[in-house]
Amino acid sequence: MSMIRVKNLTFGYEGSYENVFENVNFQMDTDWKLGFTGRNGRGKTTFLKLLTGQMQYSGSIDASVDFEYFPYSVQNPEDFAVDVIREIAPAAEDWRIHRELSVLGAEEALYRPFAQLSFGEQTKILLTALFLRENLFLLIDEPTNHLDEEGRRLLASYLKKKKGFILVSHDRAFLDGCIDHILAINKKNIEVQKGNFSSWYAVKEMQDNSEIAENERLKKDIRRLENSARRTSDWSDRVESSKNGTLNSGLKQDKGYVGHKAAKMMSRSKSIENRKIKAAEEKRQLLKNVELQKELKILPLVFHSDPVAELRNVSVDYGTGQAVCSGVSFSIRQGERIALKGKNGSGKSSILKLICGEDISHSGELRINRQLIISSVPQSGDFLKGTLREYARSRGIEESLLKSGLRKMGFSREQFDQNMENFSSGQKKKVLITASLCERAHLYVWDEPLNFIDVISRMQIEELLLKYRPTLLFVEHDSAFCENIATKTVEIR
Length: 493
Description:
- By secondary structure, the chain is an alpha/beta fold.
- The chain is built from 14 helices and 17 strands.
């Protein structure tokens, strides 16, 4: 057993207004199965890169283990998948490669070019390489993105047997299945807590609710004290001004008595003011780490006919003669939220692209009215460049509406001035989702919308969909989300 000790860690990107980390101190056991969570843009990936020595920082990170970062960078994506694995894990024997791929259900991808695989298949290839590397402390950065449910289950089972790793993930069920500690980047601090994600979140909810209640009590106390101080001060002033007057009997006022009385009132006023200041100071100590879930909005359109779209015996082959998927039949009725399910590489994304009007080689019958307005969210936001203003203009949506939605999703105003290519993957995905929410459409088509998205934002999106009930076709491997949102499931085989 050994420790990883972080002392006075400070780091900021060049040109940034604020540091990502400032005088951060904590320690962790190298035997812990550590889940790493926090809202997008808080520095989770940055911290992993600091551990591996990829960037300069002040302070110290002391560790007696060698770190292994996932996902791996693929230098030659045109190579066969097996060659990519051999490059990452050169000591691995062929029989072990086949065994690990068989466990993950990805043997068919082994002798295909890496670049031609689906995102999910690429993830499985890289996970195979990870499983073949041994005796290293793993830094695993969002491995479940693009990974199907079976792949997530197998990965959780593998990690549960491992000793010592840091796992960045926003999949609640996945985290609960394989971790024993939580490392959380909050708004104002970093904390380490024993337990899984659910136990940590339950404690956080209790703390947040307690602070919110205490904040409301202090707000009321401050208002009451302000009114009391104002009344006492007015009373003191009136008493003081009466020193030079006369009583109704014609006798002169006792100036000493009146002055004493006024001083007593003034002292009382000062005491009330001090209590108010103390209450205000206590209030300022609250809510620093409370993650407020502000309500998102969407205004879907109602289509004049139903169903809004229909597929009959559709097959997709990309012109190769070998079907990616075949015999796909289902209809989309208004108000339905349909989860499209299937293994990685089964053609789910191809079906979504086909419905969105992309030119994809297929057979069968696809019925979509030309007047149907569709808003889509693609799997990846890597193509995003330039400013939010430019992007809003290109999508034909109001810039203020886009930025208002992003603020509710945890963006700071400072981030609005950055170019999108500098955003984290989670922030890019939030831009895509928020832009879709800003569009009025009959049908929303979302391809793995929760990839890279933090837990708080996932809950916001869930609440939005349950409240406004848009017609939605989506692919998502987060089991908790699908269970809460889907009104119908269509399996692609």
